[in-house]
Amino acid sequence: MLASNIKDRFQRDGFVFPIDVMESAAAAAYRARLEAAETAFPDLVNAKTCLRRYPNLVLPFVDEISRLPAVTDAVAAILGEDLLALDCPFFIKEAGTDDFVSWHQDLTYWGLDGEEEVTAWIALSPATVASGCMRFVAGSQTQTVDHRDTHDPRNLLTRGQELTVTVSEDAATEVELRPGQMSLHHGKVFHASHPNRSGDRRIGLAIRYIPTRMRQVAGGNMAAMLVRGRDDHGHFRPCRPPSGLLVDADLAHWREIAGARNAVMLDEGVA
Length: 271
Known about the structure:
The chain has 271 residues and is α+β, with helices and mostly antiparallel strands. The chain is 23% helix and 24% strand.
């Protein structure tokens, strides 16, 4: 997909898909590295800890994915060449479970000084209607809507936050992706996803990119990783790439960085 087409579609709809970023074999290899880490370090590599906040600080393969030219080229077509990864959470739905994501907008909770943000959602397993793929409402990024907290334990969002308006299900675009493909979406576009009714895990890595010129309004101690270009602004504390797989020094760095972000996200609530 041409860079100009990516930018035009993103500005019009608030999302673009599908974009091929790696071969299916490469996606399978990344998935294998993730699942090996889950098996070896179950107390750390799970949906409650480093998989949902800054896994790029402790899992080298996540940092690697966040820098892939096939990923950042598409993002740079929208945001420019100088890019920070604000966070890189996994969104994993186990097979046959009731976990879902309610309709919401991300930027409501992030405390940034603007709306220049792109989330690259990269599929490491099939993202289908059956497995609970992402769903977007085209053009909704132009709106700002209030949210409420439901604290539904099945909701993958920390506090079960949801829009206070009713979203027409007929307006939703089902964003099906093969392993190795990605979608890009704006932090204000309405998005949600249904439970996974398939027989396989639905594994997605959501990399939150912002240009280096952005500032954090709430919580001045926030950190981000420079993944492309240069940072001549210094508005965020710099993160350092992991030196190995879940090594002690990286874990200490991760706890410090993740704790500062959690404190800003309204009782750790962020999608």
